[in-house]
Amino acid sequence: MELGAADISVLAHSPTPAIAQGHHQWWRAWRGRLGELAPALRPASGDETDSGVTHVFDSLGGVRVGGRLIEPATPAAGGVVVLHGYGAREDLDDRSALVRAGLAVLKLRVRGFPGSRLDSGDHSAAPGGWIAHGLDDPDTSALIGAAGDVVLAARALAAHLNVASVGVRGDSLGGGLAVIAAAHAPESISRLALGVPSLGDWTGRLLSSAPTGAGKDAREALDRADENQGALRRTLRLSDAVVHARRVRQPVLCLLAVRDDVVPPTGAAAIYNALASDPGLKRRALIERGHAEPSREDARRIVEFERRTALFLHPRLTPLEAISS
How many helices and strands (H and E) does the chain possess? Predict the structure, then answer.
């Protein structure tokens, strides 16, 4: 892929988002609340089997969070939590190249999406969109609650497999949540594979001329909030993935797009550039367009990225071996 000056500028984007007042104290208390929980995967039953869910665990606020656990025929070499994007509606299934590589996979549905809506409701179909739910208070925010779901899912899967930590694979919304979770649970999340991660550089995203997806829902929530805009903006600043990326030191493999009509490429690149991972243990791959029907060349690059991801998340390889394969 030939990059022009504008493309290079996009990929080099490194904003310095304003940190919310009390950021460090708030997240320290949040980690303390997570530490009080001991999540355990248990077989789903009855209504808990919604949308292909096979297992559930109890997350922050007593919210039951579901996922589909897929294990290889032979003992798993390790585990991976797989996260979804903003439009997750289809039922979960057993397809996964990671399982074929010998890894146990937990396809997670974070709170408020089909598969994890028994206690929270279906925020993904609610007026205003998923990200708007509870946005005026970080303690009730679906977005921040979902980051906790990811941390606890990693701990639950690691406990199920009797291993110290697992990898996380996330696209779009899932990529941003993976970064936030990894920043606060380095003992449970060992490696990250991200595809065009969202939730970064909220200031720039909200100024976009035609935001879509989570950006559109967040901006409309701000417009409706009127005098309460400050509270919503604080929650978005608290959960800016660029800020949290500065705490991420795990090895990272990341797919970035030069152009994208859903997740601003500058925001995704800013997350990658902010990662505090050892420079030798973070790698990026590029495609021309994100969140779009891929061209033949992009399809080839995506297939190659998925091949590398299966190696990268496999614990039998050291991070350096995995990222260099």
Answer: 12, 9
| Domain chopping of the chain, boundaries | 5-324
Element (DSSP H or E) covering residue 296: helix 296-312
CATH topology of domain 5-324: Rossmann fold (3.40.50)
Give the span between the Cα atoms of 311 and 167, in whole angstroms: 11
Kindly give, in sequence order, each residue whose CB lies less than 8 Å from that of residue 128, ignoring residues fewer than 6 positions away. Answer: 217, 220, 221, 224
Nearest to 81 by CA among 175, 1, 154, 159: 154
Distance CA 196, CA 271 (A): 9
Distance CA 230, CA 303 (A): 43
Instruction: Supply the DSSP string of 162-228, one letter for each residue.
Output: T-S-EEEEEETHHHHHHHHHHHH-TTTEEEEEEES--S--HHHHHT-SS--HHHHHHHHHHHHHGGG
8 Å CB contact between 115 and 51: yes
Q: Is the pTM of this model over 0.85?
A: yes
Residue type present at position 135: L
- The single-letter DSSP state of residue 62 is G
Where is average pLDDT lowest: 104-113, 146-155, 195-204, 314-323? Answer: 314-323
